[in-house]
Amino acid sequence: MWLLVGTVDEVKKKKKVVVTTDDGTKILVLAHNDNFFAMDNMCIHREREMHTGVILKDKLICPGHQWAFDLRTGWESVKEQAQPTYSVRVSDNIVEVDAASRNVATSPN
Q: Does 3.30.565.10 match the CATH number of domain 2-102?
């Protein structure tokens, strides 16, 4: 189920956009280095909202305890756990996230 996030320019300008699915799940969509990424907005560790975190070296740093999640895979290398991620696409200058594509990595690749 593809959800509208916004136009490419809107998402790039905001850098972080949270969309809500029909069941109330909040998905964070990020614009970074001309790419788009998506993951659960609630951290798997302490349930902090990830949209308040910062991006550093292609990782989203959780504002709660500084776990560093890879933007592509959601993998956190120190704790060897993963934040769930989602597929993102751009079609006709519109960014969309697939709420049905939730994936939890079991390794760093």
A: no
Contacts of 6 (CB under 8 A, 6+ apart): 14, 17, 94, 95
pLDDT in tens, 56-90: 999 999 998 899 999 999 999 999 999 999 999 99
Rounded CA-CA distance 35/88 in Å is 9
* Strand pairing report for 85-91 and 94-103: antiparallel
pLDDT, residue 22, reads 93
Domain residues of the chain, as ranges? 2-102
Residue 82 CA to residue 77 CA, distance in Å, equals: 9
